[in-house]
Design goal:
The protein is of the alpha/beta class and 722 residues long. The protein is built from 19 helices and 30 strands. The strands form 7 sheets. Strands 11-12-10-13-14-9-15 form a 7-stranded parallel beta sheet, sandwiched between helices. A 6-stranded parallel beta sheet has the order 16-26-25-17-24-23, with helices on both faces. The radius of gyration is 27 Å and the shape is globular. The chain starts with a strand and ends in a 6-residue tail after the last strand. The structure holds adenosine-5'-diphosphate (ADP) and zinc ion. Zinc ion (ZN) binds next to loops.
Length: 722
């Protein structure tokens, strides 16, 4: 090949053609360095017929490729996945491909680096800083900068310690292989149900065929143990497994669990990795050596050499939907990856999404069920507390019956969990004198008081400010009042009621890294925590056998706002959090505080009749032509200049094609009318399933022009309607 089409890593550009200089070998998937003007860009060689260029350049005007990087070419299934994702989500192929090349360092090929570690020798002069450094570094090994960060000292302190010999350089091959999982390490004795379920999954792995399967089992039924058997089958074939989790906070408990079963941790992939860990993981994944990878959504686009199995755990979780950059849904892309790789995909959930259930109903996905909890554990009892009939005391949020249940639980030396999906102390702060409400300067949102750090914070853009002592509007002192509860306020109430209890607040503010999650799990297991007050972060994955009581502070909360999935999401979230109760030998009890105990979703939760609830929800979606029976796509137009955004939104609205199979609503100001200083307008496209809505939108938007100040984002299959 003397000419190559290259997908360059610049989302604004289409594919470009280059000359392949004499002696250089490239093939589709090769990662190359290409010149562009005075710059050099990374690129991927592509089949010309799959990536048409609208600016064909004559041979004599081609520039030479500069280099081929020493990594395996991206394999055909991954290239097909990149194309599919870009096409389906109306994203630039380069933006998708960049997720595959997620470690720049790895692309440079094998190399040795110098890391540093403590020798155990003490320096002659032990300053307090040096002492702190050596104490915190302990057994850590890393670059100077990394050690300095761990030790919270300057680089110079570490360099000084190197000079004294207390810290020594070591040459490390970054591409050291990972330990291999050992299938026989901690093999459990499966129950008959579990054996049957795993046999089906194992057969699919052994057949090396594309087969999506819903692993539908109640919380605590042993879904993990069951899909681990499929992992065993993949390992036996020497093939790689990818396990996707919805939150990075869940990685840590998963690593422990995996290590207990397989004797070593799997390869973790998430945003918290050090550069060297990232590089090593990427290279070993691309090499096929890393057999099991666990990660958040971004692990989906890595260049697995030999993928034999994909598992999406807690597959109903909406956090699999990426809401920035490429707006893809990792669950759906995982299924497509399985299709291109010809491998099975397991979607594990106790509360499957209606979309997934529908795929089962029409026969596209198989289903494997685990009807009961494993061992002696029973499903917890779920009882409503009608907040109108049994209200909490004035100024309190926990109703007397729940207070009593907490009292009894703690009295039995068992653990309790109070769930409220609201970070901070109070969702709204206002001035008692003049009624002034604190609003984010950048967003259409109230500032949320975080009492632990004594600041007001916007949960949309991250803007924070100190809590003022004086109202900025009327200048009265000490007049601010919190309105409504957040987890911190509930924690205060618990401490007031049970001064002896050890209370932990679990939110993304307190558990922001895998290490923090590990610490929390350790404290729960050591019974260093009696009661957790937590947000959705605590609802899934965790297994605490001594946790027997769950109180849902405001079961109605998720129904507010009322988008298409509000009831479904409420059902899933409460089932999940209820599923934390009574997972061991002791029975679990769940109380739902609600203003509407007769709402369909509350009745379904209380009676445990998920089937009729799902049937009714599914029917109403069908009638409305809503997903999965029809399609939505949102077009979000934003700009710092409100008029520019509005004009562009109107122009897009006017240009909307009139097609029978599609309706366009809007433009209208978005519910979040301002976000991070940008004014936002939305259009909602509602289409029949049969319509190729992506093609229609591509052509439609291609014919409209808007000012450079305006950004237009298309969100196919949106989950957020804000
Ligand atoms: P799920 O993911 O369905 O909520 P888990 O896989 O977390 O359930 O299982 C719940 C608990 O039961 C875990 O502690 C798990 O180790 C244990 N368990 C499940 N099946 C078995 C088994 N066959 N042998 C031993 N322990 C099991
Ligand atoms: Zn904001």
């Amino acid at each position: 090949m003397s000419r190559a089409r290259v997908l360059v890593m610049n989302s604004a550009l289409g594919p470009l053609d280059y000359r392949v200089p004499h002696g250089m070998h490239v093939e589709p998937g090769s990662v190359v360095v290409a010149p562009l003007g005075p710059r050099q860009l990374l690129g991927i060689v592509w089949e010309p017929d799959r990536m048409p260029s609208d600016a064909e350049v004559g041979d004599n005007r081609l520039r030479n490729l500069l280099a081929v990087l020493p990594v395996p070419p991206l394999a055909t299934p991954l290239r097909r996945l990149i194309e599919w994702t870009a096409n389906y989500y109306l994203a630039a192929p380069a933006a998708v491909a960049r997720m595959a090349l997620a470690s720049t360092s790895a692309l440079e090929g094998a190399k040795l680096v110098t890391e540093y570690r403590a020798t155990g020798e003490m320096p002659d002069r032990l300053t307090p800083q040096r002492e702190q450094a050596l104490e915190r570094i302990g057994a850590h090994q890393g670059l100077i900068r990394e050690l300095a960060t761990i030790a919270d000292v300057s680089d110079a302190v570490i360099r000084g310690l190197v000079k004294t010999g207390a810290i020594e350089p070591v040459s490390v091959d970054i591409d050291q292989p990972f330990p291999l999982p050992d299938p026989s390490h901690g093999a459990p004795a499966l129950s008959a149900d579990q054996r049957a379920a795993s046999a089906t999954l194992v057969a699919d792995v052994e057949a090396s065929r594309f087969q999506p399967t819903l692993l539908d089992g109640v919380t605590g039924s042993g879904k993990t143990e069951v899909y681990f058997e499929a992992v065993v089958a993949a390992i036996a074939q020497g093939k790689q497994t990818l396990v996707l989790l919805p939150e990075i906070a869940l990685t840590e408990p998963f690593l422990k669990r995996f290590a207990a079963r397989f004797g070593c941790a799997p390869v973790a992939w998430h945003s918290g990795l050090r550069q060297s860990q990232r590089r090593r993981a990427w290279r070993q994944i691309a090499d096929g050596q890393a057999l099991v990878t666990v990660g958040a959504r971004s692990a989906l686009f890595l260049p697995y050499a030999n993928l034999g199995l994909i598992i999406v755990d807690e597959a109903h979780e909406t956090s699999f939907k990426q809401e920035e950059g490429v707006h893809y849904h990792a669950r759906d892309v995982a299924v497509m990856r399985g299709k291109f790789e010809a491998c099975p995909v397991i979607l594990a959930s106790a509360t499957p999404a209606i979309e997934t259930r529908q795929q089962v109903a029409v026969g596209r996905y198989a289903e494997v069920k685990l009807p009961g909890r494993w061992g002696a554990a029973e499903m917890p009892s779920i009882a409503p507390i009608d907040l109108i009939a049994e209200p909490p005391e004035r100024g309190r949020w926990i109703a007397p019956r729940l207070v009593k249940a907490i009292d009894e639980t703690l009295g039995r030396r068992e653990q309790a969990l109070l769930f409220l999906n609201r970070r901070g102390y109070a969702p709204l702060t206002l001035c008692r004198t003049c009624g002034h409400r604190f609003q984010c300067p950048n967003c259409t949102a109230w500032m949320v008081e975080h009492r632990l750090v004594r600041r007001l914070a916007c949960h949309h853009c991250g803007h924070t400010e100190p809590v003022p002592r004086v109202c900025p509007e009327c200048s009265t002192e000490d007049t601010l009042v919190p309105v409504g509860p957040g987890v911190e306020r509930i924690a205060d109430e618990v401490k007031l009621l049970f001064p002896e209890a050890k209370v932990a607040v679990v939110t993304s503010d307190t558990i922001w890294s895998p290490a923090k999650a590990a610490e929390f799990v350790g404290r729960m297991e050591a019974h260093d925590i009696d009661l957790i007050v937590g947000t959705q972060l605590i609802t899934k994955g965790y297994h605490f056998p001594n946790l027997t009581l769950v109180g849902v502070i405001d079961a109605d909360l998720g129904l507010e706002g009322g988008d298409l999935r509000a009831s479904e999401r409420t059902f899933q979230q409460i089932m999940q959090v209820a599923g934390r109760a009574g997972r061991g030998a002791k029975p679990g009890h769940v109380y739902l505080q609600t203003h509407s105990p007769n709402a369909a979703v509350m009745r379904a939760l209380i009676t445990g009749d998920a089937e009729s609830f799902y049937a009714a929800e599914t029917e109403s979606r069908r009638e409305a032509g809503a997903p999965p029976f029809g399609r939505f796509a949102a077009i979000v137009v934003s700009s710092e200049d409100q008029n520019a955004a509005q004009d562009a939104a109107k122009a897009i609205g006017r240009a909307a094609p009139r097609i029978d199979a599609m309706e366009v609503y809007g433009p209208a100001p978005a519910p979040l009318a301002m976000l991070r200083g940008r004014h936002r307008f939305r259009l909602l496209v509602h289409a029949k399933r049969a319509l190729d809505v992506q093609d229609v939108i591509r052509e439609w938007l291609g014919g409209v022009e808007w000012s450079a100040k305006v950004r237009v984002v298309v969100d196919v299959d949106p989950y957020s309607f804000l």
